[in-house]
Amino acid sequence: MKSVLIVMGSENDFDKVEPAVKVLKQLGVPFKVHVASAHRSPERAATLAKAARNDGHAVIIAAAGAANHLGGAMAANSTLPVIGLPIEVGGLGGIDALLSTVQMPGGVPMAGVGVNCAKNAGLIAASIVSITDDALAAKLDAERVTMADGVVASDARVQAKLA
Predict the structure, then answer these.
(1) Is the distance from CB of 64 to CB of 14 less than 8 angstroms?
(2) Mean pLDDT within 74-85
(3) Out of 3.40.50.261, 2.40.30.10, 3.40.50.1970, 2.60.40.10, which CATH number does the structure's domain 3-132 have?
(4) Pairing state of beta strands 111-112 and 31-35?
(5) What is the pTM of this model?
(6) 131, pLDDT greater than 90
(7) Are 118 and 19 in contact (CB under 8 A)?
(8) Where exactly are the structural domains of the chain?
(9) How would residue 67 be classed by pLDDT, with cut points 50, 70 and 90?
(10) Which parts of 11-124 are beta strand (E)?
């Protein structure tokens, strides 16, 4: 099975990235997590991105706040799919990081999720890996069934309160 590379701009981002890690662990998707900064360690970020395919990764999650140039740096240095995960830092509520994630120039694409939506980043990454892994695809299908069953159970509890 191919793996997922998660790159964070700072060690401080780990608590916001952790839901992606939990999803990947739950689904049995291998992953690696590294810290690299597009600004403070650009060579390190470029090296990780350039090596990602040869290292067995199928997709990169790039998590950073503020200007969030990490995702763009990863996308510029790899043809693997990159999922930008904007992290809320400072006083703008993560909108600065979100805009930096989704406003990529033509020719250097990056997918993006909402601010602090690491769980969705993990699920998208797992979906990409599942393209060539039927067992993982079945796990994702089962997770969808479990979520749907939870909604039905929630509705039943609400209906019981109204009765």
Answers:
(1) no
(2) 97
(3) 3.40.50.1970
(4) unpaired
(5) 0.94
(6) yes
(7) yes
(8) 3-132, 135-163
(9) confident
(10) 31-35, 57-65, 82-87, 111-112
